[in-house]
């Protein structure tokens, strides 16, 4: 399945620590002059892995630039990018991972009409199997004797089982960065597919999750569908924020510049309700806007005195449902501005172009952070904002976010479907006394950094080596 163009290392790397994920730590763009521009990504896994020396990251080529890089033999040391056939990858990533598995674990279906498991689904599932097999084969080829292999996420749920057959000597871990569906919802999947997915992950020595709740849901599925989890151990590792990096980065000059620009946009003296998300269906951005609209409708005293700063960065735009959702976010924001806006006041400041420095600027100046996902594996924004906040920030947090397990006691907690309750929570957060807000922010920040990314990764590695 991996193309014959792919350049493989002449000597087997025999790495002792391997990580596998769909999206890798680097991506390439093909420029008009034919050159390749490399962009390095961030995130918990990248920073977690920096703690380990002898490692290999196996990932998929995601776009034309990545494929061209593989063909030209351009690459980063310690990264092997798999040039899986583009059609197979699209079926596996967009068709199965994003449109089925993501929907199941985040409970996103509108069930009267979806999901539909038909012949087209079976065709895409065959691609999903091939794509997982390509990873399993590459890992089997690269891993040194007895190496530890850490497989990431729902995209690669079949890899542990496949790899176990190819290389019984390896220590295999699987980590889910998403929630896990409760068993009744998981059983929307065809029975054989549900079993295959569970068996796939149970091919690992350890299956780990971000919270106890998601781990218990997985155990519940295994127990009800398969009769148990077999020899696989279950772990919980709640990824925290990277305080050192964030605090340093948040005080660089470009962030200060963006703070000044944002203050200009919000107007002097106004309170800010900040949200920063990918425009992801599970993030519940539209209901967040509805709640803000209800706040302005029901409590006119806030008009002209508050601004909702909403950053909704593009995500999965190959899928029509994501494009439609993005359009709906814009439409509702525009509508609020049209109904409530005045000459000197724009009630919603919406930005859709990804800009990390601007996100940090918004984190620093937020009076209230709105994190109201329908369901979320963890939600690092909820952890990052209290860490970099300049003068304390009240957190309105969904009880369906993984972060709720660690942050719930100092947040204003909401049911993400209850728009009126969210509007009331925004009011409560906006009126929180300064000293209480400061105290809560301090406790939120302490909880948020309890397990920094490097320790998070090393703990998993240790447990895998110890328990396997
Ligand atoms: O945030 C959960 C997560 O599963 C991450 O682990 C993963 O990187 C991401 O979602 C997948 O998003 P994308 O489809 O943009 O790669």
UniProtKB/TrEMBL annotation:
Coiled coil ranges: none
InterPro entries xref list: Glyco_trans_20 (IPR001830)
CDD domains, A to Z: GT20_TPS (cd03788)
Pfam families recorded: Glyco_transf_20
UniProt family annotation: Belongs to the glycosyltransferase 20 family.
Protein name, as recorded: Trehalose-6-phosphate synthase
Biological source species: Streptomyces gelaticus
């Amino acid at each position: 399945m991996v193309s014959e163009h792919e350049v493989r290392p002449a000597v087997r790397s025999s790495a002792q620590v391997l990580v596998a994920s769909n999206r890798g730590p680097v991506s390439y763009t093909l420029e008009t002059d034919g050159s390749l521009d490399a962009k390095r990504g961030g995130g918990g896994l990248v920073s977690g892995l920096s703690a380990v020396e002898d490692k290999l990251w196996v990932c998929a080529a995601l776009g034309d630039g990545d494929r061209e890089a593989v063909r030209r033999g351009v690459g980063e040391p310690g990264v092997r990018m798999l040039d899986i056939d583009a059609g197979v990858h699209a079926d596996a990533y967009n068709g199965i991972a994003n449109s089925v598995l993501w929907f199941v674990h985040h409970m996103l279906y509108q069930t009267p009409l979806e999901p539909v498991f038909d012949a087209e689904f079976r065709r895409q599932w065959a691609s999903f199997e091939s794509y997982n097999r390509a990873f399993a084969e590459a890992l089997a080829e690269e891993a040194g004797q007895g190496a530890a292999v850490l497989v990431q996420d729902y995209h690669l749920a079949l890899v542990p089982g496949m790899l176990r057959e190819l290389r019984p000597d390896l220590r295999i871990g699987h980590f889910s960065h998403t929630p896990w569906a409760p068993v009744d919802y998981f059983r929307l999947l065809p029975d054989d597919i549900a079993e295959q997915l569970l068996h796939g992950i149970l091919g690992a020595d350890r299956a780990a999750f971000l919270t106890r709740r998601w781990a218990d849901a997985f155990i519940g599925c295994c127990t009800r569908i398969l009769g148990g989890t077999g020899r696989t151990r279950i772990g919980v590792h709640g990824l925290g924020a990277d305080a050192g990096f964030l605090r340093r980065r948040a005080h660089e000059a470009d962030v200060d510049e963006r703070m000044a620009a944002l203050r200009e946009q919000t107007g002097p003296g106004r309170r800010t309700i900040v949200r920063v998300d990918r425009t992801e269906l599970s993030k519940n951005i539209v209901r967040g806007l509805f709640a803000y609209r209800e706040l302005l409708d029901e409590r006119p005293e806030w008009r002209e005195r508050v601004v909702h700063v909403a950053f909704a960065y593009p995500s999965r735009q190959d899928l029509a449902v994501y494009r439609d959702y993005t359009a709906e976010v814009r439409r509702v924001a525009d509508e609020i501005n049209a109904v409530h806006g005045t000459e000197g006041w724009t009630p919603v400041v919406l930005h859709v172009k990804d800009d990390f420095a601007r996100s940090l600027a918004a984190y620093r100046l937020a009076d209230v952070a709105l994190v109201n996902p329908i369901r979320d594996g963890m939600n690092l924004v909820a952890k990052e904002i209290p860490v970099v906040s300049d003068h304390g920030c009240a957190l309105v947090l969904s009880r369906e976010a993984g972060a709720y397990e660690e942050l719930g006691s100092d947040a204003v907690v909401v049911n993400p479907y209850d728009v009126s309750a969210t509007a009331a929570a925004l009011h409560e957060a906006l009126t929180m006394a300064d000293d209480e807000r400061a105290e809560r922010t301090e406790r939120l920040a302490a909880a948020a950094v309890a397990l920094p990314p490097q320790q998070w990764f090393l703990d998993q590695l240790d447990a895998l080596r110890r328990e396997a």
